[in-house]
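Two folds, back to back.
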Amino acid sequence: MRRISRFAAPLVCGGRSCATTRGDDASRTERKEDIVTPWGVAATGPRGVDYDRVLALFGSEPVDEPLLQRLEETCNGRKEHAQATSTAQEEAGRMALHHFFRRGIVFSHRDFGTALDCVRASFATGTHRAYLYTGRGPSAQSMHTGHCIPFLLTRYLQDALGLPLVIQMPDDEKHFFRDIPVSGERASGLVVENIKTSLPLASIHARHLYSATRCTWGTCTQLSCRCSAC
């Protein structure tokens, strides 16, 4: 979650992240530390992953009870609630926290409190000072659990907070990491099919925008990707 000067502050719900590779990987392996990467998790101790160390490694903060109370108050601070859905149900006139929050599945954040301040300000002024941001790399035509979890959480936040949503399709990233073509019929087909599969998880009554790098930057991106491979 980031705050961008002079721009709206995005609330990021993403399954994508960067690997934390350091020069002392060999020494870390010798110490048999936990391994947490975007592609796998391995705990070395009998009690599982040391989440305090994970938070320190990624520079994030724990999702604690005071933050959850602020989130619930912000969700219920809207004058008009979003229509109740299977992921955001109103109970006794109040919107309940998503079970990802209640069960501790979402346990870490960065600048979520700052983003909530922007959301509260938007309620007072009537102008959006925050937006939701998530996405998936166009590859396989179907969605797996890793895709669905951030989309489900984003759906809840969009229903609860009524924010605009940007869904990024980073086709240029997939070009470099998975050798997916950045131009041609296959590239266009993957983007279109991935948008179709994610639509059922988006709020159809709320505002959202799909953005693929090749569409927003056009030929410039395609040429840059080809030159980078040389």
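---
second:
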Amino acid sequence: MAGLLAAVVAYTSSFSVVVQGLRGVGASPEQAASGLLALSVVMGLCSIVFSWRTRMPVSIAWSTPGAAFLAISGVPEGGFAAAVGAFVITGVLLVISGALRPVARLIGKVPRSLASAMLAGILFDLCLAPVRAFAEMPWQGALIALTFIAVGLWKRLFAVPVTALVTIGLVVAAMPADFSFANALGTQPVFVMPEFRFSAMIGIAVPLFIITMASQNVPGFAILKLNGYEPAPAPIFTATGIATMVSAPFGASVFNLAAITAALCAGEEAGPNRRLRYLSGISSGLAYIVFGLSAGLIVAFAELSPVLISAIAGLALLGAFAASVHGAMENLEEREAAAIAFIVTASGISFLGVSAAFWGLVVGAGIMTVQHLLKKAR
């Protein structure tokens, strides 16, 4: 159930950004729909393969910060074909990063307190969703929260699945009588021959690569490490790079390690037995494929009540948020740096096209380094 919920969270929280990003670099509506289909199916297959081979809950996702960057980039010279060429180059850069060991070493040196603080900052806004739901839809929000609390007191493992079923019931009950999903079906893949333009490589490929590495892969590995999993970064960089190169002609932008939804697949919500949590990565992959094949249908359902869908996601991540706050504040000597890392990350403010999660990690690491140097000098 955690894997399915992770897939639902990914779709409801960011699919619109992905479509806007593709449209922003010149994709037609059909090409944008094809891109969403390609992203969903390929990241599903990658999640299944990696989770099965590593026996870890490795979730592959699209780059939401990267899509936001594309949305404001403008149509490059050469149109969407040039953008597709830039996507291919981004994949090449990911493959190169997989071959360079310093990148993998950098990922493995993230302190636990900073990783916890960054994760807490990432989850903070999403965990506020139940409060927003109660403000906008009082009785529905209250019913969802009470269900979560009541079932959690009885059996914590069943709290999220039962609450999710209640939420789905509320959405279906509020569905307009004349609502039809017919127009949302029938997504077809559209092939676009890549066109390689130097301006698009510099203006799209390089920034997209940097944003994806800084805003998705670094937090993603940190979250897995926080939950006791340490997959080798190089194979993931290489595989996601190859996946990007192969699927780019169908409109897919870039693939990377999941960040926010990784907490659902790797945390306690995925089950008490850590050795079996890789099954949540597999189930999320299967869900991505199904959602991709019927992307329009899923999107139409989620749009009926995004407030309630976000509420169940926020409740599901409460445990991960609480554990992250505890991990961030546990080490007294690193508490101040971790607190600042949390604040910067939770602000949600991006700088130079890079998300707040990366800057939170950088600022926290900088403060921690200075503190250690001053301590040695005394």
